[in-house]
Amino acid sequence: MEEEWEEFEYGPRSDYGELRVTMSRVGQISLGAKAMKDLGDPTAAMLLYKQKERMIGLRPVHPRHPKAIPLRSNFRDSYRLLRANRFCKHYGIEIERTLMFNTPVIEDGLLMLDLKAVTYIGRKR
Fold first, then answer.
1. What's the pTM?
2. Which three-class secondary structure state does DSSP give residue 86?
3. Is 60:38 a contact under the CB 8 Å cutoff?
4. What angle do CA 55, 20, 72 make, to 5 degrees?
5. Taking a C-beta distance cutoff of 8 angstroms, is the pair 42, 61 a contact?
């Protein structure tokens, strides 16, 4: 029995072409370069939550806003990190391993992340 072979597309991967947002098991949200650019390269953001839909919202705000959470650089300047562990604890969001949001959308300056549409990319503990 003969199977059809599929060719694997290999080449440089760029985060500039797609919205890439991940969340680690400790509640750290990583925003890719395109997400940051489309949000206007903010230095701080506010987190929102829709409990019924299990949707996280991230809205850029001034760093002095009372609910502002700083967006920090990592070793690569192409993406930013937002610490959301207190947010996750407050809303009972449990992440067992790093996940990638499948359908991140930005509308009216709000990044929407659906916790029901994720792919686990980290190792399970």
1. 0.83
2. helix
3. no
4. 90
5. yes
- The type of residue at 76 is R
pLDDT of residue 15: 47
Instruction: Tell me the CB-side half-sphere exposure of residue 100, using CA atoms within 13 A.
Output: 10
Nearest one of 45, 116, 49 to 81, comparing CA atoms: 45
The per-residue pLDDT for range 52-63, each reduced to its tens digit, is 999 999 999 999
SS (H, E, C) 5-22: CCCCCCCCCCHHHCCCEE
Look up tokens 């990583």; give the residue: 30
Q: Which two tokens stand for residue 76?
A: 């690569």
Taking CA 84 as the corner, what is the angle to CA 61 and CA 108, rounded to the nearest 5 degrees?
A: 35
Task: State how far the Cα of 17 lies from the Cα of 118, in Å rounded to an integer.
Answer: 19
Burial of 32 (0-12, 13-18, 19+ CB in 10 A): buried
Q: What is the pLDDT of residues 33-46, one digit of tens each?
A: 899 999 999 999 99
